[in-house]
Write a structure and sequence with these properties.
- The chain has 332 residues and is an alpha/beta fold.
- The strands form 2 sheets. A 6-stranded parallel beta sheet has the order 2-1-3-4-5-11, sandwiched between helices. It has a 6-stranded mixed beta sheet with strand order 7-6-8-9-10-12, with helices on both faces.
- Helix 7 links the parallel strand 3 and strand 4.
- The longest helix is centred in the middle third of the chain and has 16 residues.
- The radius of gyration is 24 Å and the shape is elongated.
Amino acid sequence: MGKDLTIKDIARLSGVSKSTVSRIINNESGVRESTRKKVLAVIAEQGFTPSTAAKELSSSRYDTIGIFAGDISNQYYAEILRGAESVISYSEYSPFICLADTGRRQKLYMETLMKRRIGGMIFASSNIADRKLLETFLRSTPAVAIQTSIPGIPNVDIDNFSAAYDMATLLIGKGHRRFGYLDSYNGTPHLKDRVAGFKKAMNDNGIDPESLVYRVADDDYIGIGPVKDMLLTTDITALQCANDRLAADAYVACKQLGKRIPDDVSICGFDGLKFLEVMDPGLSGISQPLYDMGRKAAELLLSLINEEPHSHGDVIMPYTLREGDSIKDLNV
């Protein structure tokens, strides 16, 4: 019977992951003694003898989970990484953070990690430049995305369309009809959903969505110039920003122009970053459960690595509509 069994079978019978069985077979450290004894007992009971090829294959895979992230000085990424690490640190894997904010870095990391044969990968809000290399990478590596559209792998996100729709509906309910929208430059699908949701709310409330004054940040977080342009050349009463970092730029632009928030213009963000709690007036917007999104992505990835028998589809997390003091009620 033992000859017909595989490492996957021993893992199933022992109630542990394949990587844990591999580590025990190869006499590696990092496994609890109680777990080691349990697995060895199953191996002995089943008469299992691992082949040399299987041992070599298992020992060539590093017990590492890679995480693609952008600028970690941005609290958006920091919160996601904290959540993912809180799960990974209790597994047999170690996190490997890849600051893949450029196409060159993405290529370097993916080529390096394919050689290392890592256990899995989390793509955190990543706009992958080289899709052919990504396809090659994913043939041998389980992966999960966070707010990233990659065909064939699960994505952890919120309902961006509905969130932006709710935000616009709140502003419309407070009497606003002339809107500006400051978008991030990278144009990822979840950002496009936010613009679409905002415009749909305008349309559903009798406001021409084409009247939306739309501007794109100069790069990921530089929105001061576009905001100044909107405030100096249009008569918008409310500005929706695609993320909280851009909302912070909008505050700076208002200060430089002598514009008062919310008396001259209402401003809303999208993320719920904690550092913006010190902003005056308090920023309104959508809060995403970034820490929990990181946790959920790591849990989902571990279940994929361990080939657990349940669905691995997309996960939609809840969001919160945060009403601060940066919105003026024009009905009053």
